[in-house]
Design goal:
Layout (H helix, E strand, L loop, with lengths): L1 H16 L1 H4 L2 H12 L16 H11 L1 H11 L2 H24 L6 H11 L7 H15 L13 H12 L1 H5 L2 E2 L6 E2 L3 H8 L5 H6 L11 H13 L6 H20 L7 H6 L3 H8 L10 H21 L6 H23 L6
Antiparallel strand pairs: 1-2
Helix pairs in contact: 1-3, 4-7, 4-13, 5-13, 6-7, 6-8, 7-9, 8-9, 9-18, 13-16, 14-16, 14-17, 17-18
Amino acid sequence: MRILHKVIDSMYGLIGKNKFLSKFKPVLVATDEFFFGTDKVTNLPHIVDYMDIKRFMALVVVALIPVTIASVYFWGLRVLAIIAVSYAFGGMVEVAFAAIRKKEIHEGFLVTGLIFPLILPPTTPLWVVAVGVVFGVLFGKEVFGGTARNIFNPAIVGRIFLSIAFPKIMSSEWRVPLTDAITSATPLVLFKNQGIITSYTDMLFGFNSGCIGETFRIGIIAGGIFLILLKIVDWRIPFAFLTTAAAFPWISNHLFHTNFAPPLFQLLSGGLLFGAFFMATDPVTSPFTRSGKWIAGILLGFLTVLIRALSGYVEGVMFSILLVDTFTPLIDTLVLGARYKKKTK
């Protein structure tokens, strides 16, 4: 690591002397802070810590490693190609805007570049991956001013765009794990069309069709708990999301004789667990108030169940997260307004 540190220091000197190379300073700074943290720390009585947001994002990537490894095992080496395309084309958009704005490369794409391919079907053509990630980063983040200014999760923006623009590619063909066989049925499709409930054990360990990173749910749960224990994400949103997604259909089926999927199936099917732990908890697009997090989690669970059961789509996680992202500023404003009421004369 000392050798790497010396190389980076020497590169700073080289970049400072060359106008052309100075355009790539954001790349060097991002590399430096990823490996060695930031030197922008405060003095007492504030907390002195080298753990900046780049390191936080790195830990999210670490939490996704079990899911990523399982994805390669289930779907083959093509998964690595999909991830590489996501990082390459999304990274180019990030670097281009960093150079144009003459600012550092922000850390958000470390996570976005990995989450995006994990929420795609394993049969997605590589050119579609490139189109989706460019659209997501460009219109989900950069048009708002970049990281920390976006109101939507870029990965979800890209995924929903692909679902609308290429519906056949994104929903008609699903690979069966550990084989080259193609099926048109995921557990959600089987339940909605035929009322069939896939084995819970199969769904838990990933032996069912689905998006690349959503099927190995044991790994998702482990990664989510890892992030919660390290306080990288707040436990309130996933807890409220999962509890509501389980409680709402159970209560509705018993009191109003509806035909929602049973609670455990709701939790283990589709991308609910992945969305609850890795996307709904996005620190930029989720509420920052504690009460707001509870409200957002409840809304997410409620909307996901409704969209799954009553709309033309079999999955509702991405749409519910996008809708709640839209109302996040309003949720926080209402919470703060209720807590800190203006004094009347």
